[in-house]
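The records we work with from here on pair a chain with its fold. Taken together, the tokens spell out the fold as the letters spell out the chain. The record below shows the convention in full.
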Amino acid sequence: MRLRFSRLSLLWKIMLSTSVAVTALFALTGEIVLGNVTRTMSGSLEEEAQHSFRAYTALWASRANLLSSVSRIMSEMPNVRAAFSTGDAPTIQDSMGEIWRKISQANALFLVTDPTGRVIANLGDVPAESMGKSVEVVRAAAAKIPSHVDDPQSPGINGEGGFFLHESGPPQLYQLSITPVYVQSTQGESLNNFLVAGFQVDALLAQQLKEDTGSDYLFLTPRTVIASTLNPRATSVVRANLEHAKPSKLVSDGIADYAWYRKPLLDISGHEVAEICILRSFDAAHRRIAALYTNIILLWLGAMAAGLGLTYLLARRIVEPVKQLDRAAAEVGRQNYAIAVEVRSEDEMGRLAQTFNAMCASIRQAREDLIRQERISTIGRLSGSIVHDLRNPLAAIYGGAEMLVDTDLPPTHVKRLAGNIYRASRRIQELLSDLLNVSRGKTTAAEVCRLREVAQAACDFLAESASLQQVDLSVDIPPDIELPLERSRMERAFVNLIGNAIEAMAEGGQVRITAELDSGYAVVHVRDNGPGVPPQILSQIFQPFVTAGKRNGLGLGLALTRQTVLEHGGEMWVESEPGRGACFSFRLPGAHVAAERAGGVMIP
């Protein structure tokens, strides 16, 4: 992956890095925003649930005040007090029933009891025999209410209120208001009866609360559900989840999530008989969060598109000078030091371009100075080599001519001196030919030649030198290999290779020239068993003026030979090990097997 990324262009690296950074930034920002929105909405729903509880409390308070007010008014009516003093249930029902029916509603509870809790009359819709625990309720209220009062405004004479759980049969929950009824006695106002009034907590009440507040309600006891605005399945799941729910965490019904608030419901004695759980649906919040998430995604896409577009425009302006520098550096790598980069700014890239241009100018100047010095050095080396190499053949010519002029020699001596003068002049001609080939710019037309004939001609030219050095020359080239060559130049190339081998083997040896066909190429090997090429010059062997162990010559032979091979479309290489000889090889294109001639007709 790292390798693939490293191959990308600088522009794509900047764009990918920017897209990754923008994506990470938006992801982090979106996560933070969504988390804060979720927490804010959850807290808001919890507050709404608490507001719903306050609304529920206000409703119950108003009902309790209504029950208490009605009971107090009824307890102060003369005919009601007179009926209470009789202790007769029918009389009490007749005196209070009509009033209660006018102000009561279905499933309302209204009892008249004595101070001990015994039910004297039942004016409500709940059967008196099912209110067995009412005795305990009344006794608990009686313990808080004085039996005699002198001041009607004394605390406690307005009664007590609380919740009552009726568990005989299906559980039923009531909110009760217990009001004392006092009658005149010798000791003042004395407690005579209790009015027990209440309303039932049921599904209708829960539904009314939901319509008023928008929240869902559950009235629960440790063993059962009294009333719920949720369906039975959701109620069961929510009740199970509430048992281990943590505060400020949402509770689920398996489909929807709710913010919740729960409060215990106490009886007259202050004991918990049930609890109310108020649920605020998180569905609307989820929809808003989903819409916000969609907006964030769209915003991210828009920001990505705008960011990438802007990044592309800016990065292209930044990268363009880098591309120019890259192209210019590639040209410098190809030794084109005349390249220059356009300076478009004064920032770091502009200063870098100026520095690059100054570097190229410095390299050009240094190269010109080096070429000038190299030319001077080459002229000096050429002059020294020419003077050194021409001294011996000129001395031979001068000495031989002087002897011919000053002395009368026999014909055999004259012939020998003439041969020496001829060879010395031929050597001078070879040296001048090498100098001419250094500056050669034109080539002659190639002709189809037999490779063996070209190599054999070179061997014949060097046969006398090889004989003097005790070097055996052998040509093992098939006679039918032919190819297009500049014959004189290629013959000279063979002469250079064979002559170097002969000169390297001062104590004699063997030089073998072989060749074979390979896919339309003639591969030639000139192999000797001499000391080999010194390792220190092996890598530079084809460069001009590189010599080692040679008594004469300019060091141009191998350079000119390689140039000849290259201009024929071939290639050249050398293999050598110290003490095991050297093998110079080259390959030439266009080789083929020559057709035989029979009676002037070509026979393939």
Q: What stands out?
A: The domain at 77-201 is CATH 3.30.450.220 (Beta-Lactamase).
